[in-house]
Amino acid sequence: MGKAFASPVRLELLDLLAQAPRSVDALARATGQSNANVSQHLQALHAAGMVTRRRQGTSVRYDIAGREALGVWLALRDASAGRLAEVERAARDYLGEDVQRIGRDELRERLARGDAVLIDVRPQEEYAAGHIEGARSIPLDELDRRLAELPADREIVAYCRGPFCAFAHEAVRRLASAGRAARRLDEGWPEWQLANEPARKRITA
Amino acid sequence: MGKAFASPVRLELLDLLAQAPRSVDALARATGQSNANVSQHLQALHAAGMVTRRRQGTSVRYDIAGREALGVWLALRDASAGRLAEVERAARDYLGEDVQRIGRDELRERLARGDAVLIDVRPQEEYAAGHIEGARSIPLDELDRRLAELPADREIVAYCRGPFCAFAHEAVRRLASAGRAARRLDEGWPEWQLANEPARKRITA
DNA sequence: TTGATATTCAATAGACCACTTGATAGTTTG
DNA sequence: CAAACTATCAAGTGGTCTATTGAATATCAA
């Protein structure tokens, strides 16, 4: 299973699959790799137990293989950001100026009080594959022209793919420059999902 | 960082370092690899941020790089056991007949009540580098001749390197055949340590 | 300084991996 | 049934990684 993480292409595939299941073709287009190459890497990931696959009509739908696989991927990602200055620096450069954050617990409170509006700024397909309960889908590229949908008197919270995804940062910057009160959730859908889904069974061996 | 997990030798080194820091030489002897090879792999692990190193007199002491690194390693190990039937089967064969288990929470209760005796059956150096509070060190190869040290009227709980280490299994089998009431803790020192040490800081990026 | 021990460096041969290309298999649609 | 599409397979090539060897470096003790 360790070898699954040894190739940049496979890491990119895992990162995409952590958001939503996809076909080989869609992954090839998203990563800019050839179909055959992506298919081969997916087979490696499958053999490593990191993804599942399911034939669906004419295409094959790959998905990340449950909590455990997702957990390893997120742990690896966070550890590398936490321990490798190089990664942390690259992340900072890529994300741009940091914007105001909100944590999981505070968001829960405010949603319960009806005090905030939560928007999911990822592409629509990813929202469709799973999202935080109560979130509304407003993909980043539609945000500007759909501003009117958002109440002006409540704070807006945006989330996206995770702490290293620039969508929520950008959304908050645009909202702020439109005069709205906005913050970004400091995690994404995969982290939320992992934290909220009940743990099914403990490793016992 | 992903490449750190791509070589069996490196995984073995990580597994050893998860128990206690060691010198290059000690790791080379423990794994049966040449010094130069182990040194090279350790440098790869160091570059990946998975281990720290510290010169100590004439030797260099390597250690696993904190909570995050330990967390990734354990997550990978558990995921591979949970998702790859092959690994699970190998573990079962290696460990032999399963023995009675006790969980973390129940152990805590019983220790608080003074109702059980906890023994650490790993090699002494590993105990010295860190152990569960209240545990007594009785390495597996000294167990038989030190049986008299253990009270006959209380249950004995043995733990070792982790769920895939055979020491605790074997210890419980020997204790049982000596007429003692014994169980094994279903985790080892690294897991206990990771669960108990307070989380220092959250990833925020 | 010298010698002894522990670790690292440099060079190398062989094994393994990634990506390409072109052909093949499985599924749906006309 | 044929055509279109998606995914997989098989083979080849260039590149990377692993482990070995022997030399170089660092630290300590005499």
Model description:
Chain A is an alpha/beta fold. Chain A folds into two domains: 2-72, Orthogonal Bundle (Arc Repressor Mutant, subunit A); 97-195, Oxidized Rhodanese, domain 1. Chain A contains nine helices and eight strands. In chain A, β2 and β3 (59-64) form a beta hairpin. In chain A, α2 packs across α3 (35-47) and α4 (66-83) packs across α5. The A-B interface holds A 1-3, 5-7, 11, 48-50, 65-66, 68-69, 71-72, 75-76, 78-84, 87-88, 91-92, 95, 101, 163-164, 186, 202-205 and B 1-3, 5-7, 11, 48-50, 65-66, 68-69, 71-72, 75-76, 78-84, 87-88, 91-92, 95, 101, 163-164, 186, 203-205. Chain A binds a DNA duplex (30 and 30 nucleotides) through α3.
**What kind of oligomer do you see?**
homodimer
**What amount of the residues of chain A lies in strands?**
15-25%
Terminal CA distance of chain A reads: 17 Å
According to DSSP, the number of beta strands of chain A is 8
